[in-house]
Design brief:
The chain is an alpha/beta fold. The protein has helices at 27-34, 73-81, 113-123, 128-142, 157-170, 187-203, 214-220, 238-249; strands spanning 7-19, 45-58, 62-66, 88-94, 97-100, 175-179, 206-210, 223-228, 231-236. The chain has a domain at 3-95 and 210-249: Rossmann fold. It has eight helices and nine strands. Residues 29-249 form the ABC transporter domain.
């Protein structure tokens, strides 16, 4: 895709998700069914997490999303990543999306580290050739030696984190979605991980960052939106929006 066409466009996005007990498929439901008893269907309630959100993010922009817990920040990020389906409205992501939320999610424990590099890249939409071009860098950065050709289930927790971080930061998309700035591994790995994250953020064509760290938001982002109860209540220059948010929070 041509770079000038890359970006994000969201129009009137509303998103509901269910809350409360769901008994379908539970042991309790199975026992009721086994003995022929009728079980009252649970009442499913929905929470509207996002309410009429509209925004555009162009190539070169670094958009920060701030707000209190429960304001809809992470929900919006996951809607951009395609994890949550909109209840109404449109989410258009023009470019290859890289969402970094739980970096270890999706590992195949019986597959080798090298095979997991391939699987993660294919899920992101990279070609086998593109994945092979990055494989050596990933293996070197993870620094797990010959374990790269052993099943992931044999790894220590530290080795799994290092490999997950290396895969997530070297198999890069056009649009980078970050829920807080990531760090990984033990103390000896932290400095290398922090430098890698800085490089990743700088090289992303489009960045969307959710964070509670106002200093990071102001240092990294070119524009900020403030979410409250699922709505955008302020948008603009990072220093201005952060000042409004902190004043409202009484800080």
């Amino acid at each position: 895709m041509r770079e000038e066409r890359l970006g994000i466009e969201i129009q009137s996005l509303a998103l509901d998700y269910p809350v409360g007990p769901l008994t379908r498929g539970s042991v309790k439901a199975g026992l009721f069914s086994l003995f022929g008893a009728r079980q009252k269907a649970p009442r499913v309630e929905f929470v509207r997490a996002l309410k009429g959100v509209s925004l555009k993010v162009a190539v070169g922009e670094r958009l920060g999303i701030i707000g209190r817990n429960g304001s809809g920040k992470s929900t919006l990020l996951r809607a951009m990543a395609g994890i949550y389906e909109p209840t109404s409205g449109v989410v258009e992501m023009r470019g290859r999306v890289q969402g970094m939320f739980d970096i270890g999610l999706g590992f195949e424990p019986e597959a080798t580290g090298r095979e997991n590099i391939l699987y993660r890249g294919l899920v992101m939409g990279l070609s086998p050739a593109e994945i092979r071009a990055r494989e050596d860098e990933i293996v070197e950065f993870a620094a797990i030696g010959d374990f790269i050709d052993l099943p992931v289930r044999t790894y220590s927790s530290g080795m799994s984190v290092r490999l997950a971080f290396a895969i997530s930061t070297y198999l890069q998309g056009d649009i980078l979605l970050l829920d807080e700035m990531l760090s990984a591994g033990d103390a000896s790995f932290q400095a290398k991980a922090a430098e890698r994250m800085r490089s990743l953020v700088e090289s992303a064509k489009v960045l969307v960052l959710v964070s509670h760290d106002m200093a990071t938001i102001q240092n990294v982002c070119t524009r900020v939106i403030w979410l409250s109860k699922g709505r955008i209540v302020a948008e603009g220059q990072p220093a201005d929006v952060v000042a409004q948010y902190l004043a409202d929070a009484g800080e």
